[in-house]
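Appendix B, Record 12. Input sequence as logged:
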Amino acid sequence: MSKSSKNFQVDQKVVYPSQGVGIVKSIEEKDFKEKKIPYYVIYLEVSDMTIMVPVDKAEGLGIRPIVPKDEALKALELISEDYEPIPSDWKLRYQMNLDLLKKGSVMDIATIVRSLYHRSKVKELPILERKLYDSALKLLEDEVSYSLRKPREEVENMIFTRLESR
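Logged structural output:
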């Protein structure tokens, strides 16, 4: 396996969009159609699940490194900023937010948390949207806590303090 095909290292923490933060446990080769294919073996603590992702498919799936501290802080800032009103049609809103979640950047996730939190203050969220909010919030807490090297509870307090400052 060439060095260039290996974007992540063993023991590196990565974000798998809509799944959460994981750690690369190993890089293994498996036989597939008479070829040896390198795979990342990623352990996702949040769901206590180990997944195997072909190295050459990882980028396409949106798997990325944890954001640096400055970007995590920018995501926290975004939460307390003004925002565009979101569509009142929950299906449209849900699809927009689901698309953001799939893109999976920390700023996209912060955007979902901010808009759905404020929406839930106006009117209770439908079940699907509530689940989306809970997932986005958990992803944001996980990534920011790893990035800032702070306990989850502290990051959760930081997020809600900013949300409620609006």
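DSSP finds six helices and five strands in the chain.
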